[in-house]
Amino acid sequence: MSHILFTPDAVATTLERIRAATPLVHNITNIVAANSTANALLALGASPAMVSAEEEVESFAAMAAALVVNIGTITAPQAAAIARATRAAQAAGTPWILDPVAVGALPFRARVAVESLAHAPRAIRGNASEILALAHLREGHAEPPPAGRGVDSLQAAEQALHAAGRLARATGASIVISGATDYITDGTRIATVANGHTMMTRVTALGCTATALAGACLAVEPDATAACAHAMVLIGVAGERAARHAAGPGSLQVRLLDELYHLDRDTVTREARIAILAP
Ligand SMILES: Nc1ncnc2c1ncn2[C@@H]1O[C@H](COP(=O)(O)OP(=O)(O)O)[C@@H](O)[C@H]1O
Ligand SMILES: Cc1ncsc1CCOP(=O)(O)O
Ligand SMILES: [Mg+2]
């Protein structure tokens, strides 16, 4: 029974596997998130590399343990690199995850994101507005996607659950909708993670960081829905613990790295709030 994967113990096992394997995580990411996501991956125990040149991404995606694709500050050269990297990842069997930052607001990145879906992402993580928009864009509706307002969500995570199920069934990817409660679905199973702190929405690139940590989890856990749920617990528990003593977003950002570094089996099993709703 796969429910055993949706327990605090299973999250702790994924954490220990990351620490044991130090998976190489290839990131093609945005200029806002690059430094903070690399630091978060290092703090957790993975080995990040930011490699975006079209000439380099194919061989690197094939040798990496996971690929993270983030369109937050997409440019035409980066779009070409994403096409090559995701094709190479698919061919090599490297699990890859998409973060469709602000996909509802801007047609160029919408095209990049939708085209990338042909290369079999193992997972997609976005906020509710992004998941609603990506599902809508993939379905080719004539009217524009539901309004987004840049990189932040205008909807609660619950509002994107139906769209996430459709997107998961159509693409084969597990979908994460982050928010006060995170939802993770493969179109059949729905897991929830209730860790996290509202102050996390006041630090940039923490959604990007969640996606990057999911890349590390995908490198060691073959069930993508479980891997993504585990990542949301890890960042959520670290975020909660960091917020407890943070003076504001500045110290939260720094403390989050320290908390990721100090996470261990005891803390995770005590503080994880992970559940499986269906089937
Ligand atoms: N209201 C909230 N309460 C607690 N945690 C939250 C809340 N909103 C977001 N988070 C957490 O903050 C992190 C970033 O998520 P989110 O803000 O939804 O992504 P994005 O930055 O891409 O919009 C995730 O770990 C998520 O679980
Ligand atoms: C502010 C900003 N602008 C373009 S990408 C980016 C970072 C978005 O990060 P996140 O979605 O994790 O908050
Ligand atoms: Mg985001």
Automatic annotation (TrEMBL):
Pathway: Cofactor biosynthesis; thiamine diphosphate biosynthesis; 4-methyl-5-(2-phosphoethyl)-thiazole from 5-(2-hydroxyethyl)-4-methylthiazole: step 1/1. InterPro entries: Hyethyz_kinase (IPR000417), Ribokinase-like (IPR029056). Its EC number is 2.7.1.50. The keyword ATP-binding applies. ATP binds at residues 125, 178. Belongs to the Thz kinase family. This is Hydroxyethylthiazole kinase.
